[in-house]
Amino acid sequence: MAASAKTASIREDAELRLGNALRSAQQPAEAAEVFAKFAATYPGSKNAGNALLFRGDALLEAKKTDEAVAAWKELVAKQKDSPVAVDASERIWRTYAREKKSELMRAAQEEQLKNFPKEPRNIGVYLARGASFADSRDEAQALAAYRQAFGLFQELYPDIATSPPPPQISDLAYSALERSADLNITRAKSLGTYSNLSEDQKKQWADFLGQATEGYGQAVLGYSPSRVAPTLSKLVTLVLFRFQAGEAPVEESLKPFRDLAAKAGGQPGLVAQVLFAQASVPFEANQPALALRLYEDAYKKSAENGVPLDWRDLERFARALLSAGKNEEARPIFERIQKEFPASGPKDPKLRAQASAIFGLGLIDFQAGRKEEAEKQFAKLTKDYPWSEKLQEANYLRGQALAATGRYEGSEDKPGAFQLWAKVIESNKTDNETKARAMLAFGKGLEDVADKKIPTKQIDQGEGKPPLDPLDLAVSYYRKVDLYYDSLPEFAAEGLLKAAKIRRSQQKNAEARELAGTLLEKYGNSSSAAEARELLNSLPPASAPAS
Fold first, then answer.
1. Quick one: average pLDDT of 426-434?
2. Is residue 490 a part of any domain in this protein?
3. More exposed terminus of the chain, fewer Cβ within 10 Å: N or C?
4. What is the C-alpha separation between 403 and 420, in angstroms, rounded?
């Protein structure tokens, strides 16, 4: 009898394995038949539930969605008290979610909540419901679902100090608070610009952001270390939103971080994470000296405790070091971003981290005079991250690096300085300051071309026409800075001064006088004004007009 039982057990195991083998061999329809036969043949087997579950999986792989859902529903009905019934229930609503059948998804979720009220995975059900309601702009129901998610967590784990939940369950629950905070920020922004709001709306705006601040704070205190830094980065964005709206000064904006640090007093690693993120507030508020002091202290403590930091805060720290002239200290920070935030696909958000690191390393090389290394970094940024917000600044600096070796002209694949600066000037994504710098660089490059007799296509006017004088073209670029960017007085004045110097060297004194006079009239307080006065005084007197 024992041998017979053993033989039956082997046969049962073999049939289940056959179904799995057929799935692995990309024969899902045949696998589904095997699993159905197994469940009918061995209804009392401990694997009968798994067979029904796998049958649904195989049917789904065979693109028989309705039959798959029916198989899982049958499993829930027949084996409601077994663990696989919850698996089947999860598969039902997740299948509807993938097919964007929101009403069916929500109905299936309600069935799961009713059938398995104390199941920890229901936290994920509430989160999915919240996301669905948020997508349909039903903010009230979304927030209610997120509250239910965290409420269930508190019910299932009433004393996390003595009976801590699994980290993945805890992180899932606290993400409900983070999502609620995200939604409250959206609600605040939907009211409009803060300065244009009525007093009642301003109160509502502040209330939404207060709830968001509280939600992020609770999430930070409850998350595992790897989830903390990105959430702190969101808190930085929130307090900067308040600061930039004029609703809170810098000192008040730091309070949420100080409160969090006080609550996390027994966790030195978490305190370091909080204080490091805090430093990003004064940095973005144009207080780099204060920011750097806060960054350096918190960074040291974070290293001592081995806690992760968000790449955005690391980038700001590196930029603060650069602004303080500590370029080589910034290098390992950018290298850390490259190492710790690798991107795994074309839509990975960490691509932005990689782009920021490459630009930072290129900038360090550029400022250190390592022009060739800098040009390679900027070229890599252009090739691999053409969407980067730093692209045009990189093109400008890359042009400067090429100009240092006289490479003004190039090809489409390997552009020269002139081609790169032209892209900067023509792009609608370039800020005005970078455009003005590029125009000044273009003019200076043309002066270099004229002085060293470097060939360039810039002066070519077409067949049968004489080439332009590169100095005349340089003057044209210098004048354009004043014409288009007079809101940037230092740059506009520099352009007029350079143009006046060229005209004086060509003994075109009337134009030199006009250029210097315009500079003094429009930009008399600029740093170029004193030299413009000297130039004006050095010119011979204007000829008296004929009577």
1. 96
2. yes
3. C
4. 11
